[in-house]
Amino acid sequence: MDFFSLCSLQKKLQSSEVSPKEVFDFYLKRIEKYNPCLNAFISWKKIPSFKKKGRLAGIPIGVKDLFCTKDLRTTAGSKGLEQYLPPYTATAVEKLEQEGAIIIGKCNNDEFGMGSTGEHSYFGASKNPWNEKHSPGGSSSGSASAVSARLCPASLGTDTGGSVRLPANYCHLVGLKPTYGRVSRYGMIAYASSLDQAGIFTHTVEDSALLLDVMSGFDSKDSTSLKTKPPYFQKNLSSEIKNKTLAYFDLEPFKNEMNPEIVSAYQKALKLLEQRGCCLIEKKIPFLDYGISAYYLISTSEASSNLSRYDGIRYGKQSLKSSQSLQEFYSLNRLDFFGKEVRRRILIGTFSLSSGYYEDYFHKACQVRYLIKQAFDEIFSSCEAIISPVSKNTAPLLNSKKTEGKNLSFYLNDIFTVFANLIGSPALSLPCSFSKDKLPIGLQLIGPALGEQKILNVALALEEDLNIFEKSPEKYK
Amino acid sequence: MQAKEQNFLVSIGLEIHAQLKTQSKLFSPDRAGFNPGENQEIHPVSLALPGTLPVLNEEALKMAFKTGKAVQGCLKKKSVFSRKNYFYPDLPKGYQISQYDKPFCEGGFIQFFHKNQEISIALERIHIEEDAGRSLHKGNFSLINYNRAGTPLLEIVTKPVISDPYVASQCVKAIRRLLRYLEVCDGNLEEGSMRCDCNISVRPEGQKQLGAKVELKNINSFRFIEKALFYEKARQIECLKLGQALTQETRLYDSTKNQTKSMRSKESARDYRYFPDPDLPELDVSENFLNQLDLPELPFDKTQRFVKEYKFTPDLAQILVEDFKQADYFEQVVLQTKNPQALSLWFRGEIQAHLKEKNQRVCPIPVKDFARLLNLIDEGDISNTMAKDIFSEMWNQAKSPDQIIKEKNLKQISSDSKLKAFAQDVLNQNPKQVQDYKQGRSKLFGFFIGQVMKKTKGQANPQKLSHILKQLLEDC
Questions:
Q1: Residue B437 maps to which CATH number?
Q2: A87 touching chain B per CB within 8 A
Q3: Fewer Cβ atoms within 10 A, N terminus or C terminus of chain A?
Q4: Across the strands, what pairs with B106?
Q5: Which among B279, B280, B282, B284 is the top mutation candidate for probing chain A, defined by the most A β-carbons within 10 Å of its own β-carbon?
Q6: How many Å is the Cα radius of gyration of chain B?
Q7: Which residues contact B459 (CB under 8 A, 6 or more apart)?
Q8: What is the C-alpha separation between A198 and A183, in angstroms, rounded?
Q9: Does residue B251 share a domain with residue B104?
Q10: Is B347 in the same domain as B255?
Q11: Burial group, residue A255, by CB count within 10 angstroms (0-12, 13-18, 19+)
């Protein structure tokens, strides 16, 4: 089958050049062939039901296993929810289905979205199609791996601190995290409510804009969803960015820890934008030393409360061991339910909210978050978007023994991505280059709140100028 | 003993939980209120299924703010929902959405009468929160019913300014009366649609700082509020007299034993790890919303008006206004009669008895019929005893009093000549008794009355008859 992007597939379906069944069978075959190696999907559909109408009619889409789906089990990558079948479908997924999309399967992820390598999934790590010894990134590991290896033309992820942008960066994809509240969170299993946002993996910027069009909009079931009517992102796409002012981050503070290939790819991209007639201004990352701490305190605090519902009483796994007290009942159930990283984060969050520590930890983190938001507002008052790297290094090697005990360094790896979540801004990661060992290198664009169009347009210009988006991993062409 | 007790000061504060009578739950679209069966038709949000999110019920918000306005509290345009985190099987999310440091209403007061004295109890705050499910413990297993989970609750907290357990129970009654007037809560303590926790502390006279606060739970009637507080007051005073230190704790009231029992101490108190709920934006109500909160005439105002307009004592007025629909009925009837005092007796007597027996809320007799009945008594056409029978008949059969009087031929005989004739007959037929009466057996007067009543089938106007008989006997 000869197509690359979701939009080109859409055209072929609309002109009846291919039938929805042919498309589905094509991807199903690929999943059955490649998934045993990549472990990108936890569950998938064998018999779809096709809906003829809609902008996405007949297009198979993979969905991170944090989105509830009525007809497919939804595990959140957790042992406790291994057999959980939700009675309802998440709003974001429902919107895709209303436009005729076929949810082909549920993608692997770090348990409850907690991790940046995919290794914290109860169902095992997914692999990076560009090099299976490497991680595709996390927490939306399977979603990135699947689109990158063409097991589906697009997928949904969730992004709490970079869980869409980081894997997109490691897998040579466009990964978009919209403005907080742009896409409904209803039915998206919560990690940290004030930071979580649904995200999109695609091969092209236009695909991303199309899916954003479909998924955006107010949802009365989510009190934090935005009432602002979304514009037509796809229709308004334009690579005409002449005279736009863009800010870029000074990488001086990272000079000893950053992969120089990433730095030079970053500089190359900046040059391209300059050639396009953009005005580039340098900015320092505000509150650089506090961003990660604020992020991890807020996310773990919220998580400690969000995950309290998993007691094994109403649904999910209940420990078979008998308990002598209510406290023991909870301990046994939850010990059996959650993996180590989730338990670690629940403990950190519980501590940060505890009386006597609240003021120094959670509350302080919220104050820092407020200051960061102000500082970014200040930056956005003089520019359209901010350009930054996505990570300090290319995709890490998969090796749980090596990563064990190095949590802090993994947490610190999120330094470029957490800010967008803390301030609720839209952000996007796009393919930019490759390292000598043929691992993808991406680039990040951060926009002001509701400024998706701005970053999509800059990304479109870069897509045209870089001309490398169509590259696929050899084995999965 | 009495003298010594006066050396201690008692401070009682109340925490009332009132279930709001909304159609749906506080954050979920499923039905609130009593659901038959167990775990029926519960929405995924109420069960805290993965991925579900809360959406605030505007009806609950309106009810809450109406209550805040009625107690003249300071209504906050901005308030915050926080999570109160604790694990319990009937708490589906593992946290309760409540309000913590920024409730929607602060201050205000509850006004009522007690022993004809006007009393005003200052409120600390009112906040909105959700109810948990119900646990049923059976031997070595427990059952959970989630029907109630997510039902909206108002928590009304008074300042610890009450010293008399009777006033405490009256205050709870006044709160219930107010909530019923506003039609926001059923106020049923036994069924738990209204629940009351009492805080009580005792300190020696002269000490400024309050004593150790003891929270009493599990009190489900007004009588138990008084009994539990009296027990606890005595227990604490006894402790202090014996030189024992009191500690902050929560105690359960056992109504069968009339005792309180320690449940948990301050040291084992839970750390609820409150923090603002990130799923709910700060609550921000508009000026327009606040302006549209319409209040009915409130019970305390109605009580004062009844005192003024009908010359009742405050205690009587407060009883008459207990239910606003009954109070409305009262006022409609009183408009067509001239005797509020007599009407008040009917309200407290026959009407209450019938309402209770038939389990009805308002007297079903049309206002004009009931007024007519009262006027017939006033005019001497029927006796009170007759009226009671007619009243029962009216309640059950929806007939006018005149119809019933006609059908049963109940009208009172008040004409002097007719009564005289009946009386003379009786005297003529019982010469021996007349002779005995004359010789001093005055008890026989009742006998003559009875005989006339028998002849007239009870229709003789008793006052007039008695007067006429006395005269006839004197003239004999």
A1: 1.10.10.410
A2: yes
A3: C
A4: B74, B125
A5: B279
A6: 30
A7: B386, B409, B410, B411, B412, B413
A8: 6
A9: yes
A10: no
A11: exposed
Asked if the model's pLDDT at residue A402 lies above 70, the reply is no
ipTM of the complex: 0.96
B166, B43: one domain: yes
Beta-carbon contacts of A365 under 8 Å, excluding residues fewer than 6 positions away, are A293, A294, A297, A298, A301, A352
Give B302's contacts (C-beta < 8 A, 6+ positions apart): B317, B321, B324, B327
SS3 A8: helix
Residues on chain B bordering chain A, Cβ-to-Cβ distance under 8 angstroms: 44, 47-56, 83, 85, 87-89, 92-95, 144, 146, 271, 273, 275, 277-281
In degrees rounded to 5, what are phi and psi of residue A242? -55, 140
Q: Please state, as a whole number, how many other Cβ atoms lie within 10 Å of the Cβ of residue A477.
A: 8
Q: What is the distance between the alpha carbons of residues B1 and B28, in angstroms, rounded to a whole number? A: 55
Q: Are residues B441 and B469 in the same domain?
A: yes
List chain A residues with CB under 8 Å of B58. none
Q: How many CB atoms lie within 10 A of CB B377?
A: 20
A163 counts as catalytic: yes
- Average pLDDT score over residue span A72-77: 98
**Token pair listed for B248:** 């902050």
Do both B349 and B428 map to the same domain? no
Which residue segment(s) compose the domain that B154 sits in? Answer: 2-291
CB contact under 8 A, A84 and B50: yes
Mean pLDDT by 10 residues, chain B (476 residues): 64 98 96 83 96 98 98 98 97 98 98 98 98 91 93 98 97 98 95 94 93 92 96 95 91 93 80 97 97 97 97 97 96 93 93 92 93 89 86 90 84 82 89 89 89 84 86 83
Bridge partners (DSSP) of residue A43 are: A106
Residues B247 and B356 in one domain: no
pTM score, whole prediction: 0.92
Domains of chain A (ranges, CATH numbers):
6-245+385-476 (3.90.1300.10), 293-365 (no CATH)
Same domain as B157, residue B283: yes
| A278-337 pLDDT tens trace | 999 999 999 999 999 999 999 999 999 999 999 999 999 988 888 899 999 999 999 999
Q: How many residues does chain A have?
A: 477
Annotate A287-304 with three-state secondary structure: CHHHHHHHHHHHHHHHHH
Count A/B contacts: CB-CB distance under 8 Å: 102
